[in-house]
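Weekly modeling sync, notes
Attendees: AB, CL, MP (scribe)

Item 1: holo prediction request
CL wants a bound-state model with adenosine-5'-diphosphate before deciding which constructs to order. AB pointed out that an apo prediction alone won't tell us much about the pocket. Agreed to run with the ligand included and paste results into these notes for async review.

Input as submitted:
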Amino acid sequence: MRLELGNGKLLEVVQGDITREATDAIVNAANSSLLGGGGVDGAIHRAGGRSILEECQRIRQTRHPGGLPTGQAVATAAGRLPARYVIHTVGPVWRGGGSREAELLASAYRESIRVAEELGLSSLAFPAISTGAYGFPAEPAAEIALRTAADELRQAQHLRLIKLVVFDAAALNIYRQELERFSRSEKIERTDRSIKNEN
Ligand code: ADP
């Protein structure tokens, strides 16, 4: 599944294991300690090796002694992974929806993309941040992922490809529905714009 955004920019949704992605960077759904955890975080550290954890520890000591705040992102090298960098971001824990979770989730995507742009990268892969142990409901999380990635990719200087990598078939289905809904609403916006331009 893919959405062509113009200017050769592509937003893609695939099912798979993000540790195998050979994009310039993959994003880690880390926790604020940056010292590893379960889910995708555990998989990235297992597959990438100790050097990623050591670099995370150095970042903790020097730049983020209190831990990486929710919604922010930092980059490390990627050890043995096929990607060149891992961008570690902290998504929000779902607390019912009234604790700025949506805004913080969008920020985790946006800040990861900002870090990738600073590094001049052309491709980036995301997992479905916050939808595992952190309990963010899958549908709104997919909508935020798609909208934020599409908006930021359109404005990006270097990035050409963003891949949203989901782990299982159920998540893929949800992304498919959200992608269809999203491209329909985009078409409506485009039509509105051209009608306005004609007047
Ligand atoms: P969080 O703590 O942010 O919720 P998790 O790692 O628990 O992060 O889960 C985030 C999402 O990543 C979940 O949807 C989970 O199914 C998925 N996931 C777990 N392992 C992988 C992997 N190796 N590749 C891609 N996605 C994964």
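Recorded for review: Residues 17-19, 29, 39-41, 43, 91, 127-134, 165, 167, 171 surround adenosine-5'-diphosphate (CB under 6 Å).
Action items: CL to compare against the apo run; MP to circulate these notes.
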